[in-house]
Amino acid sequence: METVTITLNEREVSGYPGMTVLELAQESGVVIPTLCHDPHLTPTGACRLCLVEDERSGALLASCVAPITPGMVINTRSPRVLERRKTIVKLMLASHPDSCLVCDKGNRCQLRKIASDMGVGLVEFQRIPQSGVIEEVNPFIERDLSKCIMCAKCIRADQELVVEGAIDYINRGTASKPATLNDLPLEKSECTFCGTCVAMCPTGALMEKEMTYRGTTTTTIDTVCPFCGCGCSICLEVKDNRLVRATPSTESPVNHGTLCVRGSYGYDFVHSPERLTTPLVKISGDFQAVPWEKALDAIATEVKRIKETYGSDSLAVLGSTKCTNEENYLLQRLARGVLGTNNIDNGSRLYSSASRVGLGWSVGFPGTTNFLDELEQSPVIMVIGANPTTSAPVVGYTIKRAVRYKGAKLLLIDPQQTRLSSFAHLWLRPRIGTDVALMNGLARVFVAVSMILEEFVASRTDSFTELARSLETYTHDYVEEITGVASQDVQLAASIFAGAERASIVYGNGIT
Ligand code: FES
């Protein structure tokens, strides 16, 4: 592979063409302070804090947007560089409110941390007053743009990662600021309160509304979001054994630094006073709180009685989808080793059993066949019976990114309008309950117009002739009459799908 060699702080290091000075420095263990940079976002070079000096030309470069070129001689800590970085931080602080002591971002504020690392104390520049908090009634996010440093991380997160387009810069010059259309409150915009912008904001400009002033957290636990099936990696920040906040893991190949509203804010159940903390046993028709020993005794006695009376297979164990793999493993050990039954199941398998059977029969593997990153690389994506922007938002983000930034064509099959509708290249709206006819209509077009790989069909499938014969009744007119979808749209969808080099299908409970 072609490499580019530069001198970095008097040491020769090599990277690949297109790599930035910042990326190569980070890879080489050289620390350069940044504020507007995030590896998930397109670099913009907005804050200029990552300045480095090119000793050949004497130019000061924003390293996050400067590509490496052969023979570069970069100094990341020359007196000029250190001096300019300090000035930049002082300029930011000059227009920042004097409220660090009462700002809940506290020790998480990257501006404050960088200022302290650089030894920036009192700022001698004339101060620029800033407007204060934006009043909003949403329960999740508080905006205080007086603390905004215009790094545009929130805007880029909104537009590039979750692809909502709820915010952008408005106004020009010193009046410029990130805002919704017409500067409306967030709750009156397209914002879904996913919290991704809050997690990325380097200062106290964007804050969680509910979990304020709980002090510096002492423990961070890496885990998996307990909500939908996306499996997003999250970091739970804990203080005094209480959950303070959840943030997206920046390392995760699933969520790439994003979360949805549930993953960011849906944790009020953890410390809810309504949560059961003791077992309840029904005594004389009423649930009564009992000690654990008594509850476990009651369960053991009853299970033993049933097993002795009716045999082991009269017992069954159903694990929850919310249990971890390890907990479900222990459950099956309990079922098989202690209760003596193979009647062990799990909600994850049970709820999607139709899907698993269908996938097992058709592709030989009863589960999702591809990673989300591969979905994002698909030139054509068909979504049917699913509303991933609501049910599995990170899948929704992936599809929207594929359409908006990778040129994918989205074939949306859904009777109702969803947030994906405006991203669709073609939106088919079959009457409710007519999906099978539509699928058969599409399949008939594939067969009739020879949009199939004969060799694959011959070597890898069974009973294809019977299938083709069963599709004969699904003529254009017949399918249009049943589904209400115009026959030319069905043909167009078939040609787009079959014509793609790679195509993905995302389906949900709407059709299973
Ligand atoms: Fe490079 Fe902000 S991190 S300009």
Concise overview:
With 512 residues, the chain is an alpha/beta fold.
Strand runs, count: 21
Beta-strand content bin: 15-25%
- State the helix count: 18
Question: What ions, cofactors and ligands are bound?
Answer: FE2/S2 (inorganic) cluster
Q: Describe the largest sheet.
A: 5 strands, mixed
Low-confidence stretches: none
Could you give the distance between the termini?
46 Å
* Overall shape: globular
Tell me the radius of gyration.
29 Å
Strand order of the largest sheet: 2-1-5-3-4
Structural class: alpha/beta
Which whole number gives the mean pLDDT? 93
| Share of helical residues | 25-40%
Characterise the protein shown here.
The protein is α/β, with parallel strands linked by helices and 512 residues long. The protein contains 18 helices and 21 strands. It has helices at residues 21-27, 79-94, 110-118, 153-161, 196-200, 261-265, 292-310, 325-339, 347-351, 353-363, 372-376, 388-391, 393-406, 435-448, 454-460, 464-470, 476-483, 487-499; strands at 4-8, 11-15, 51-54, 59-62, 73-75, 133-134, 141-144, 167-170, 177-180, 206-208, 219-224, 233-239, 242-248, 280-283, 286-289, 317-319, 344-346, 380-384, 409-413, 426-428, 503-507. The strands form seven sheets. The chain has a five-stranded mixed β-sheet with strand order 2-1-5-3-4, with helices on both faces. The protein has a four-stranded parallel β-sheet with strand order 20-19-18-21. Strands 6-7-10 form a three-stranded antiparallel β-sheet. Strand 8 and strand 9 form a beta hairpin. Helix 14 (435-448) crosses helix 18. The chain is globular, with a radius of gyration of 29 Å. Bound molecules: FE2/S2 (inorganic) cluster.
